[in-house]
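=== Discrete structure encoding ===
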Amino acid sequence: MYINNKHRIFGLDIIRASAILLVLCSHSTLLLFPNQNNIYTTVVQFFGTVGVDLFFVLSGYLIGGILLKQIKEGKVKFKDFLYFWVRRWFRTLPNYVLILILNILLFYFLHEKIIENVIYFFVFLQNFSSPHPDFFTESWSLSIEEYAYIIGPLILFSLILCFKNYSKKALYVAMLLIIICIITFLRINYHSNHNIISHHDWSKHIRKVVIYRIDSIYYGFLAAYLAQTFYATWNRYKHWFLALGVLLFLGVHSCIFIFKIQPENAQLFFNVFYLPLLSISLLLLFPFFSAWKKGGLFKSTITKISVLSYALYLINYSLVLLTIQNFINVEAKSVMIKLLILFLYWFLSFGLSYVLFVYYERPMTKLRDLKFFKEIK
């Protein structure tokens, strides 16, 4: 698999590869122990959720950097934002639509019915303001990312139209503050009008809903602004930021563990403050990792996992894991059989992801470089 390393930052590949491996490890516990809930599976599954948050803040950091580059180059007309969306959509939509269709067909084959309101999935409305249906469940995070890429640039373009004499970078910051404040208000409003009864309830109604979660992406946008505007400080104190991020992450979760803080007994903390604190703690790692240019012995492997991460995320759960569980009662098998099934899960996930990337994702992504789309600029 040929990979163009010209513009890749190895440290960010480490973050992306770590994120998808955390997700796969988390899903592995669901494959082997679907009905067990102990400290070991809970910890692994927790870090799987952290993997998704890493994807969020990393995506925001990278896309925010692209928008700032557009601003620096004076590309702030609507056609420039349209070109930005076209490039994003050719990167994300082909894989998503293909895997969605495969999930619909597989669900029909196994259950002889079509999921209700399946059309919502094609426009990412399945979890816009309500809990995600129990179908293609990993797509909840993709809805959040897609709307983040649409709403932010739209607000930024509107601000540029209304305040033509203002600094475009200042309007970029204003866009971020507007969105973060609105989403925070929506979470406060939800907190004031609903009662969370369990961690599962909180995850379903807050963590996985677009209008309560989209700000996680914009904290990444903010980090991109800080990285470019205060580059010397960002780079000089990268080890201090790394230490602060680790301390914040460990401090928050140590308090949660020691004092048994849960969404049902600390609703204000979880509904309003926890997710932003998690995003900020992860972003404090970025000065260190964004400066990590050289790789060691495992550079090639880490980079390949990073490149396959989007395909892996789409394929591993609904298509591979749930299909295995549909035909095999994994929990009832012996340890040796479980290990073989686990190997099969990882082998199929990586193998199918490789095929998807090489023969579909990469060719579809290259279409955005056609002359027709470049003329949009």
Summary: Residues 10-374 form one domain.
